Amino acid sequence: MGVIVGILCALFLLATQAIGVPELAPLKNHHSEGNFVQKREALAIDTIFKLPVPITNSSWPQGGNFASEIIDLGGLQVYEASTFMNVWGVYQGGADDQGFSVFEPTGIPRGFSMLGSYCQPNNKPLFGWILVAKDVSANTSSPTLKQPLDYTLVWNSASLKINQDMPIYIWLPTAPDGYKAVGHVVTNTSDKPSLDKVRCVRSDFTDQSETNDLIWGLDDFHVYDVRPSNRGIQAAGVRVGTFVAQTGSPNPPSIACLKNINAIPKYMPNLEQIKAILKVYSPTMCLHPDEEYFPSSVDWFFSNGALLYKKGEESSPVQATEDNLPQDPNNDGAYWLDLPADPTEKERVKKGDLKSTISYVHVKPMLGGTFTDVAVWVFYPFNGPARAKVEFITLKLGKIGEHVGDWEHVTLRLSNFNGELKHVFFSQHSKGIWLDSSQLEFQSGNKPLYYSSLNGHASYPHGGLHLVGKNDMGIRNDTGKGDSLDMGAFQLLAAEYLGSAVVEPRWLNYFKEWGPKVNYIIADELKLLEKILPGSLKKVLENIVNKLPSEVLRQEGPTGPKEKDNWNGDER
Ligand SMILES: *[C@@H]1O[C@H](CO)[C@@H](O)[C@H](O)[C@H]1NC(C)=O
Ligand SMILES: *[C@@H]1O[C@H](CO)[C@@H](O)[C@H](O)[C@H]1NC(C)=O
Ligand SMILES: *[C@@H]1O[C@H](CO)[C@@H](O)[C@H](O)[C@H]1NC(C)=O
Ligand SMILES: CC(=O)N[C@H]1CO[C@H](CO)[C@@H](O)[C@@H]1O
What we know:
Elements: H1 2-15, E1 70-72, E2 76-81, E3 84-90, E4 100-105, E5 113-114, E6 118-121, E7 130-135, E8 145-146, E9 150-156, E10 169-174, E11 179-180, E12 185-187, E13 200-202, E14 206-207, E15 209-218, E16 221-228, E17 237-238, E18 243-247, E19 257-259, H2 271-281, E20 284-287, H3 298-303, E21 307-310, E22 318-319, E23 335-338, H4 343-350, E24 359-366, E25 371-383, E26 387-390, E27 393-396, E28 403-415, E29 421-428, E30 431-436, E31 442-443, E32 447-452, E33 459-460, E34 464-470, E35 473-479, E36 484-486, E37 490-494, E38 518-519, H5 522-530, H6 535-546, E39 554-555
Parallel strand pairs: 20-32, 24-37
Antiparallel strand pairs: 1-2, 2-7, 3-4, 4-6, 5-7, 8-13, 9-10, 10-12, 11-13, 14-19, 15-16, 16-18, 17-19, 20-36, 21-22, 21-23, 24-25, 25-28, 26-27, 26-35, 28-29, 29-30, 31-32, 32-33, 34-35, 38-39
The protein binds 2-acetamido-2-deoxy-beta-D-glucopyranose (4 copies).
One 2-acetamido-2-deoxy-beta-D-glucopyranose (NAG) binds at residues 85-87, 104, 165-166, 188.
């Protein structure tokens, strides 16, 4: 994966336009007749997304605090509201030029208060949640929640000639001393909202936030969703589900997030609940119909001749077993794994063994323990060569991109309030993408599909050709529905919060490389490839490859799941 990481980073720089961040379409002034256009086409936001099979609290075995609807952050109770009333919509700009809509939570349980409004782009079905809160601190002098003192108007759309329901007014609550605002209030009239509308939160229950996805923007005005800046297994920051509306880019944003001062794992699933979670949500992996390099279990790899090499003793590798893998926590290049040396065996092991494949699961608290992340890892003995599309020709890039021992994963993110699957992360080289559940393909109930790309095994939410490059040229990632595998057969690798209940396999604590270092000279690889390309295309290929940073010329072998930043941290 590593070489390609470099290639892709380079191509990403060239082609950021093509991927990722929704581009903001410029506003077209096509409704200058009046401000309020009530008639509009049906949009995705008009439908409410629900998982194929509804999740109720009886979906989960009883025990512990998982999925008990209310989470106590240590004197401040929060509840995940997910039914809404529409306050406003604008139907231009933002993702797909479809605008965005603002909502207020409804069905707030007795005693709970709103912390802010919710908004999302109109190009997706309504699928949101926002926390509402209740003070249970019994601290009469400094309750955990207080009404704002006042509001300041951050922005309004009254003078804009755009396709909108009516003008809106976005307000920032003025928090009393020692309190912070964790959400905006949005109204569709110019009257200040009542002070009773929302609550500010005592500062020790707040944490610094950062802007995340851009929801909408116009000129210098932007709406982003906010999340805690510090995220990971140990981080206490809680996402509220609110957004920040700001002119310019003040950092940190004026909207804080919450903080769990209780024990972070308190609301995490127990072992039985983890099994149930995998039964309900285990992803189905779809391999490409032309895939040659299948996954396998780690045991299969070891018992089919994988070798353990030691630096300085390259001529006498030993058979790798769970028991002889070094366990010291340094990756110093002193040992590495490789395929069997015998050429026939090597080719056989490269191809993996789908029947033996299981998923390796890591369960961890995220966002202050209000979410459970279930990272589902898959091992492939071999990652095939990268493939480039150069006009109508597809080229295998020889050694470029090839390596032994490939670890890939997808991560499910479930709400600890109710066990509902909210997001899935698809790892693609050293990066990846998050998708809301509303954007996924499901099969057999609530099992999300993911597509493993041909040779490279990057994970994608949908099939087809994903070209990393521009002008129809670049590194190919083909996905399609060949063999598929329900990843429900799993081994629980780790769930640190469960203590000694989970025994980590020894290979997890092998921190050295799972494949040898790959050495090659890019120019030589290019010469080989150019022999089969018509003259006019040589330059094009050279252009694709020449923009690569020099570190791609040498390549360390890949490391195991525990060496990755996302083991303890958030996915990027
Ligand atoms: C499910 O939730 C309802 C209402 O919140 C509660 O009365 C019931 O005891 C819960 N059942 C389980 C199995 O937790
Ligand atoms: C204006 O907002 C209120 C909630 O504050 C909502 O009840 C009402 O439907 C909104 N008006 C329109 C036209 O959307
Ligand atoms: C109430 O909260 C304030 C602010 O955190 C704290 O200083 C004080 O000790 C608390 N009082 C009680 C009785 O817990
Ligand atoms: C962005 C992406 O999916 N890149 C993948 C393209 O294919 C190569 C191998 O052919 C993978 O290593 C990349 O991860």
